[in-house]
């Protein structure tokens, strides 16, 4: 017996949200694009019309009335407005701004209490399945180093608060060293990968990260080193930036891969 299609809402029609809207409109088995929400509704409607995508625009607090799953592609500041109504209705939310979850354990508690679910896709990282598996045993340490073109870090609150400039660099400059929790707060649009890594492994206060502004790289580069009782491994990835230099192209593709798994007859990976 075939199951009813999962109704998907997209919260935010920026670089990632638009890529997802196009693919859902083109068709993914078992999924249907139910609605979207955007800060600038006139701009969003003009884009939808230009793309030929028939999708109603609704307010964030109305997503739960239209969809079974909402995908958060918006600034971290509005994560509560997206997640809370969906979770209160016992529905699912796929969160890309997962750094915001570190300071909101109440959302996880709400999901548990109401039978909802928060899904964090792999995003621009790799190896979260290995980290999750290792966490079933004992992990001694998780370290991460991120290198980005300076423009991909410009405007981060941490840089502004500490008077750190990334303009005109001619060599790599370390702009941060600390925990994943501190990085998520200081670079909310840049290193959600660190939060995802922390959630998969030993938590945000034991996961450490260095962030470098590097004018010699054109891609967003991440290296992870894990020391555990089951395995020791080092993983590296170089992500090609999207039109938004803060976001890698692979992020939207990771969300699509996660969506396909929802109803897939064969699922590969932990």
Please outline what is shown here.
The chain has 270 residues and is of the alpha/beta class.
Descriptive notes:
This protein has 270 residues and is an alpha/beta fold. The protein has 2 domains: 6-123 and 250-262, NAD(P)-binding Rossmann-like Domain (Rossmann fold); 128-246, Dihydrodipicolinate Reductase, domain 2. The chain has helices at 15-26, 41-51, 63-66, 79-88, 105-114, 128-135, 157-161, 180-186, 192-200, 249-262; strands at residues 6-11, 31-37, 69-72, 92-95, 117-119, 139-148, 173-179, 207-213, 220-228, 232-239. The strands form 2 sheets. A 5-stranded parallel β-sheet has the order 2-1-3-4-5, with helices on both faces. It has a 5-stranded mixed β-sheet with strand order 7-8-6-9-10. β1, α1 and β2 (31-37) form a beta-alpha-beta unit. The protein is globular. The protein starts with 5 loop residues before the first strand and ends in an 8-residue tail after the last helix.
Quaternary structure of the protein: single chain
Overall number of structural domains? 2
Instruction: Give the beta-strand count.
Output: 10
Return the structural class: alpha/beta
Proportion of residues in extended strands: 15-25%
What's the number of helices?
A: 10
List keywords for this structure.
single chain; 270 residues; alpha/beta; Rossmann fold; Dihydrodipicolinate Reductase, domain 2; five-stranded parallel sheet; 10 strands; 24% strand; globular
